[in-house]
Design brief:
Strand order of the largest sheet of chain A: 1-3-2
Largest interface: A-B, 34 and 34 residues
Distance between the termini of chain A: 65 Å
Strand content of chain A: under 5%
CATH class of the largest domain in chain A: Mainly Alpha
Helix content of chain A: 55-70%
CATH architecture of the largest domain in chain A: Orthogonal Bundle
Number of domains of chain A: 2
Largest sheet of chain A: 3 strands, mixed
Number of helices of chain A: 21
Radius of gyration of chain A: 23 Å
Order of helices and strands of chain A: HHHHHHHHHEEEHHHHHHHHHHHH
CATH topology of the largest domain in chain A: Neurolysin, domain 3
Oligomer: homodimer
Chain lengths: 501, 501
C-alpha cells in the first residue's frame, strides 16, 4: 500500500515537472527568437500548462495521498520526504485560495504589468497607483487565507526564501545600513577618483561575445550541457542539469555589462548544471531558494570576477582582445574601473557596494505595506526620501524611482530581499572557502575550476534537498551572519578608495 | 447535455494538442541546437508526452463521449463532426492493440533504428534482417487487430493517406511505369547531354543562405510567422499557423541542394501558415494528409522552382550573387542543370523524373510484404532486381540499396507512396490553375504570390477538414488522375532532351 501511494505521488510530481519543462522551453523559445506572430499562442499555451500543472497538484487524490504519507514520514526515503514537505506547502498555498480569486488575481497581474509599462514610460506613478493598491489587497487577502506567523509579510518572504522572517531581515539590514551608508558617504567625500572612461568606449560586439564565452569556460560553465544566446534581458534557465541555458545581451559601449551578465548568469548556470541528476523530475532538481541561487551568481560575478586577484590573472586576455583601447591601461586600473562606486537611481545598474541599499529601500517599503495601512499614493514620496537618505540622491522622476522595477506590477512582494541575501551568503561562503584555501591564490593561477568544484560538492549537488538556512549552517557552520558581507565590502572598497579601515 | 459532452470532448483534444505542441518544440529544440548532454532527457520527455497524449485519448470517458456524439452527428457543427471522425480512427487504432504489445513494439523500433544505422554503415543487410522481420510481424499482427478491407496493406496506406488503397495505387504506378521507364531510357540514349559542371563549384554558404531566404520570400513564406534555421536533415514544423518553422542545410559544393530544400520545405511551410486559425487546437489545423502535404512542397520545389519560366525571371539574382562562377552561364543552361536526369541509387538525391521510380520500388516491395510470406532475406535481391529494371543500375552494396532509408527501421510502412502521390497531385493541381491563368506567365513576371494566394484559398485554408480525395475532387474536379503528372514529365523532359514527344 505504502509503495503504491509513493509511486502515485511521485508520478504526479513527475508529470508536473514535464509541464514545467514544456513551459520553460516555450519561454526560452519566445525569449531567444520565436516568431513574432506566434507570441499570443505561446502566452495561451503557457496559461494552459500552468492550468494542467495546477490540476495535477490540487485534487482529492493528492490530498488523500499527502495525508497518508504524512502519517508514514518515518518510513519514507529522504528524497520522498523532502518532496512531501515541498508539495504540502504548494498544495496548501494553492488550495486555500478560492479558484475565482486566483483567476481574478492572474488577470489583474497581466493588466497591471501593461499599465505599469505605460506609467513607467510617462514617469507617472498615479497611472499605476490603483493597480498596485488592488494587487496589494489581493496579496493581503491571500496571506489571510494562507495564515502567517509573527508578521504577515513572513508568509511572502517564505515563498522565496524558506524560513526567512522580518525579524531576521530587520537585523540583517540594520547591520548593512550601519556599514554601507557611511562607507558610501566616505567614498563620495574621498579625494580618490576612479577612472572608468576606457570602459565606455566602443567595444566590438563580436569580441564581447568571445569574451563572454571565454569567461564562462574559465569559471566552469559546461557548454556541452547548455548554451549561451542573446535576449533583451539576461537570464538563466535550467531545464535539467544536462541542459542549463543562459542569455546575455550586448551593447557596444558597455563591455562590462555583457561580461558581468555572463559571469552572473554563468553562476546560476553552474549551480543548476551540478545538481545531482538523480533528483531530476522530483521538483527538487533546482536551486534551494532564490537567495541561495543568487548567492552563486553573485559569488561568480562579484566575489570572483570583480576581485583584484581575478583581474591580475585575466586582464591580459581582455587587453589582447582590445589592444587599441587598453594598451595603456593596467590590470589594477581595469580592476578599479570594474568596481567604481557611483550611487545611482537604478538598481540594476548599481555598483557592488550600493546594490544592497537599493534592496533595503524595497524591503522597508514592502514590510510597511504588509504591516499597516500605508496609502499607496504616499509611496513615491517615501521612496524618494529613502533614496536621499541611503544614496544621497534626489529622485527626479518616478521612472527613475518607484516605477523602475517590474516586480511589483506582478505582485512579487517578498522577492527583493533575496538579492541582498545572495550577496551576504556569497561573502559568508567565501570566508568558509578561505579557511580551506585562498580563493585569491587560485584566481591568480587561473584555477577557478577548483573553487567551482568545491561549490559543486558542498552546495550545488544537493539541489533543494535542504532549506537555505540548513545549507548555510552545513556549509559555513553558522546561520546568516551579515558581518562577512560587511567586512568584505569594507575591506575591498576602503582599499580601492584609500580610506582608513 | 450535448453541449457538455462536446465541451469535454473538445477540451480533451485541445489538451492533446498542447502535448503535441510541447513535443514539437522539444524536437525543434533538439534538431536546431539543443545541448548534447540534454539529449537523453529530451528523448525521455518525448516518450512521456506521447504517454500523456495516449491517456487523454484512450479512456472510458472518451469512449463514452465518442459513442454519444456518434449518435448525434446531425446536431454537430462541421468542425466537431470532422474531429469526431479523426478521433474515432485514432481511438480505434490505439485501443484495439494491447498496451503491452504497443510498448514492446516501441522498444523494438528504438533498437531497430540503432541496428539499422550500424548495418547501413557496414552495408550489411543481414545485420538488420531479423529486426525488420520482427517489425513486419508486429505490423501484420496490428493490422489483424485493427482489421482491413480488401488488402491488409490498405490499413497502413490509410494511416498516411486517408482512403488510399492498393487497387488505386496499382493503377497509379502502372501508369507511371509505362511512361517514365521508357522516358528515362530514351534520355539515357539521347545525344543531348546536360552540363551541370557549374553547379558543382564552390558556392559561399553565406550567399546560399541569402538565396534560400530570398526564394522563400519570393514564393510567399512569411518570416513573421516562422523562421529558417539549419539542421542535419531539412524539415518543416508547424506549431500553429503563426509559427511554422523550416530548416535547410548547406554544403559548399551543392548550391542546388539548399536552394531546393528551401523551396520544398517552404512549400510545406506555406501550407501550414495558411490554415484557418480557427482550427487551432482541434487536431485539424494541419495538412490534410501526407500526400497533400507533399503535393504542396513538390509544387513549389518542382512545378514552380524547377520550371523554365521561373528561371527566366529568377536566374538574374543567382547570377548576381555568384558572378564569377556564372558570368557565362545563361538562364536556359541553369534551368537545364537544375533538371539534369541521371538515374542514381539514392532516392533523396534523385532528379525529378526518376524520383517516383524509387517510390515504386518501395511500394511494390511493401505490398508484397503484407500480401504473403516473402522472406526478408530475399529482399536485397528483389530490391536490386527492381533497380536494374526501372533505373538500369546495378546496386553495388546494401547501403546504396535496401538500407538507404530510415523508414523501415521505424516500421513506417505505407508512407512511401505519399511521396509519389504528392508529385502527381501537384501536376493535377497545376493543370487546374492553368485553366484559370497561366502559371508560367505569372512566374515570368515574378508574381509567385498570386499562385500562392490561389493555393491558400483553395487548399491551405481548410487544413484537414476534408479527406485528400475530397480535396482533389473539390479543387480539380476529379479524383487522382496520373495522366497530368505523366504528361507534365513527358512534355518537360522531352523538351530538355530534345526527344520526339
Amino acid at each position: 500500500m505504502l509503495n503504491v501511494v509513493i509511486d502515485r505521488f511521485r508520478n504526479a510530481i513527475e508529470k508536473r515537472s514535464v509541464f514545467t519543462y514544456a513551459g520553460s522551453l516555450n519561454y526560452w523559445d519566445m525569449a531567444t527568437g520565436g516568431s513574432e506572430k506566434g507570441m499570443s499562442f505561446r502566452a495561451k499555451l503557457q496559461g494552459m500548462l500552468t492550468g494542467y500543472s495546477y490540476e495535477m497538484l490540487v485534487n482529492e487524490q493528492m490530498e488523500a495521498d499527502l495525508k497518508f504519507l504524512e502519517g508514514k514520514v518515518d518510513e519514507l526515503d529522504e528524497v520522498t520526504r523532502r518532496m512531501l514537505v515541498k508539495t504540502r506547502k504548494s498544495y496548501d498555498d494553492y488550495s486555500k485560495i478560492p479558484k475565482e480569486e486566483v483567476e481574478a488575481f492572474s488577470k489583474l497581474q497581466l493588466e497591471a504589468e501593461q499599465v505599469w509599462e505605460k506609467a513607467k514610460d510617462k514617469a507617472d506613478f498615479s497611472m499605476f497607483a490603483d493597480y498596485l493598491k488592488r494587487l496589494i489587497e489581493f496579496q493581503k487577502k491571500f496571506v489571510g487565507y494562507r495564515g502567517y506567523e509573527g508578521h504577515p509579510y513572513n508568509t511572502l518572504l517564505d515563498d522565496y526564501e524558506e524560513g526567512m522572517t522580518v525579524d531576521k531581515l530587520d537585523e540583517f539590514f540594520a547591520e548593512l545600513k550601519t556599514t554601507i551608508v557611511p562607507l558610501v558617504k566616505a567614498i563620495n567625500e574621498s579625494s580618490v577618483k576612479v577612472d572608468d572612461s576606457f570602459v565606455r568606449k566602443s567595444y566590438s560586439i563580436e569580441k564581447q561575445k568571445e569574451l563572454a564565452e571565454d569567461v564562462l569556460n574559465v569559471i566552469g560553465y559546461d557548454f556541452n550541457a547548455g548554451m549561451l544566446k542573446e535576449s533583451v534581458h539576461p537570464f538563466s534557465m535550467g531545464l535539467n542539469p544536462n541542459d542549463v541555458r543562459i542569455t546575455v545581451n550586448y551593447h557596444e559601449n558597455e563591455p562590462l555589462a555583457s561580461f558581468y551578465a555572463a559571469a552572473h548568469e554563468g553562476g546560476h548556470g553552474i549551480y543548476e548544471q551540478n545538481v545531482n541528476t538523480e533528483l531530476m523530475m522530483t521538483g527538487l532538481c533546482e536551486g534551494a531558494s532564490s537567495g541561495i541561487h543568487e548567492s552563486q551568481s553573485r559569488f561568480y560575478e562579484n566575489v570572483l570576477c570583480r576581485s583584484e586577484a581575478f583581474w591580475e590573472y585575466y586582464y591580459q586576455r581582455v587587453q589582447n582582445l582590445f589592444p587599441e583601447i587598453l594598451k595603456d591601461v593596467s590590470s589594477q586600473e581595469y580592476y578599479k574601473a570594474c568596481n567604481k562606486v557611483a550611487p545611482s537611481f537604478i538598481r540594476i545598474e548599481a555598483d557592488e557596494l550600493t546594490y544592497s541599499l537599493h534592496i533595503m529601500i524595497r524591503y522597508e517599503i514592502e514590510k510597511e505595506l504588509f504591516s499597516g495601512d500605508i496609502d499607496v499614493n504616499e509611496l513615491p514620496a517615501l521612496w524618494n526620501k529613502k533614496v536621499k537618505e541611503y544614496l544621497g540622491l534626489d529622485v527626479p522622476s518616478d521612472d527613475l524611482g518607484i516605477l523602475q522595477d517590474v516586480h511589483w506590477s506582478n505582485a512579487l512582494f517578498g522577492y527583493f530581499p533575496t538579492y541582498a541575501l545572495g550577496n551576504a551568503y556569497a561573502s559568508q561562503i567565501a570566508a568558509t572557502i578561505n579557511k580551506e584555501f585562498s580563493i585569491d591564490e587560485k584566481l591568480r593561477k587561473g584555477q577557478c575550476m577548483e573553487i567551482t568544484k568545491w561549490l559543486n560538492d558542498k552546495i550545488h549537488n544537493m539541489g533543494s534537498m535542504k532549506k537555505p538556512d540548513e545549507i548555510l549552517e552545513l556549509v559555513t557552520g553558522e546561520g546568516l551572519n551579515a558581518k562577512y558581507y560587511t567586512d568584505y565590502l569594507k575591506e575591498k572598497f576602503s582599499s580601492i578608495y584609500d580610506l582608513q579601515k
